[in-house]
User: What shape does this take?
Amino acid sequence: MNLNPSVAVGSSSEHRFAPRLSLELAEIGWKTNATELTGLNGFRGEVICPPGGTAAAVWGTEVYAGESSICTAAVHAGLISFRDGGTVTFEIFPGVLSYEGTERNGVASRFASQSRGGGFRFVPRTDADEGG
Assistant: This one.
């Protein structure tokens, strides 16, 4: 499961990334978060969330704590669905002082004060990303 620029490793492959440069698009699990990408501020990763997903923990709205499930946060943001999954692009940043909890698209995100693992937000896909 290569992730741009990381690869999921070991028995925790559903949850975390270990830093390593890779240019391959990766399918990730619905529990995968971005905590091990902390410090790679500005890094953009493109991942595939498989169809048939189930909700995992999410903290924040529009900007998400690094401990949040990337795929579940993408559902919360309205980018994909649990049923169909999909491809999303996210960007790592240092984090914010607090993350607002809301309910959107059938996902209830939680409030959190300052994330230990930085944060991420989704980057809109351009026509060029979609071949157009």
